[in-house]
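Hello Y.,

Per our agreement to keep a running log of every chain we model this quarter, I'm adding this entry. I've kept the format consistent with earlier entries: sequence first, then predicted structure.
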Amino acid sequence: MSHVDPRTILVVCPNLIGDAVMATPALRALRERYPEARIVGLTRPVVGEVLAGSPWFDERVDYDPRSRQAAVRLPAVVARLRPLRPDLAVLLPNSFRSAWVAWLAGARRRLGYARGGRGLLLTDRLTPPRDPLGRYIPTPAVEYYLALARFLDCPVRSVRTELYVTSDEHARAEAAWRSLGIDTEQPVVCLNTGGAFGPAKNWPIPHFITLARRLAQEHEVWVVVLCGPAERDHARAIARGADHPRVVSLADQPPSVGLTKAAIARSALLITTDSGPRHFAGPLGVPVVSLFGPTHIAWTRTYHPNAVHLQHRVPCGPCQRPICPEGHHRCMVDLLPETVLTAAGRLLAPGVPRPLRTDRPEVVVVRPPRHPSGQSLAAQRRDRR
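Predicted structure for the entry above:
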C-alpha cells in the first residue's frame, strides 16, 4: 500500500476460539510488517486467554457487548480506544459490530471484508470469494485472514498457526495431573467433546465412553477428558462410564482455556469434535483426530501435518446447521468408535505418523493439504517455540 505506515493499529480479533487460532498467521505477519507500531488487540475475554503469552500485541483490550461488567461493554471500550487515535483498524470478524466499534474508536483507516452491510463503514474493502451463483466459496480461515495482511503488503512466510502456553498455565496443568494421579511416564490422550456451534457437532457420549475405555485398555495410555463449564457433566459421564482407572476428566478442576491449552500441550494425541480446542493441536505440535459432522472441513483447514479428519458421508450433509434438521444425527452417530480408534492407533504408533487410509467408503479421510505455493507443509514446520 502507498499509505504512510501507521503508528497505532487496532486489531479487532475473531470472537471464537478456533477462529482466533486460525488468525495467528495474520497477526504474526502484521507484527513483522509494522515492528515499530503500537498494536492493540480488541478481544473477547476468552480469546484473550487463547492468545495469552503471544508477542503480537503491545496492549490488549477486552470487549464483550453482552457482559454484565460495564468495563468491557461498548461505551467503556470506546472511551478507552478513542484516545489511542488508531491510524488503522484491521477487522478480522465479518460482523457489522466490529466495523461500528472501529468507526466509533476514530480509526482513520478501517480494513475488512465487505460483508454484513458494513461496506460504508470501511475505508479499505476486500470482497470474499463467491461462485458464479453468488454463494460464498468455502475458504480456509487461515487464508481468509491472511488476505487482509497481504492487502497491507505484510510478509507471509508461513501458514503455520502459533500459540503459547504461559508458565501459569503450565503450573495449572501440573497441579491437575498431580490431583488426578496421572503417571507422567505414560502417554496421555486428550478427548474434547464440546462445540459452541450447537449439538449437531457433538459425537455421542456412548461413543466417547467406548473409545476412552478401549484407548486405555489397548494402547495403555491415560485418557483425559477436557471440558469447559458447559461440558462438565459430559466429561464426568465419560470418565464414569469408561470405568477404567486411567480414564479421568478435568470436570472437577477450575475450568479455563489456559488449562485446556496446557493439557493438550502435554498430550501425545488429541481426539476432538470440530470445536475451538481442536485448533490448539497444530501450533502445539500435537497430532489430532478431528470428528466432523455437519460442517465443511474446507472452512477450517489448518495445514497441520499430523491431522486426520474423519467425516461420515450422509445425503443431507454437511448441512452447516447447529441442530440436525432431520432429527437422526447420522453424520455423527454413524461415525463409529472403531473408525476413530483405528485413526488414533496410527497416530499413536512409534515413529512419524502417516496419513490414515481406510477401505470404508462412508468415512472421508482428509489428508493434510499442501499450501497453494506448492511448498511441502512438512518443510514449513518450525520447532515448537
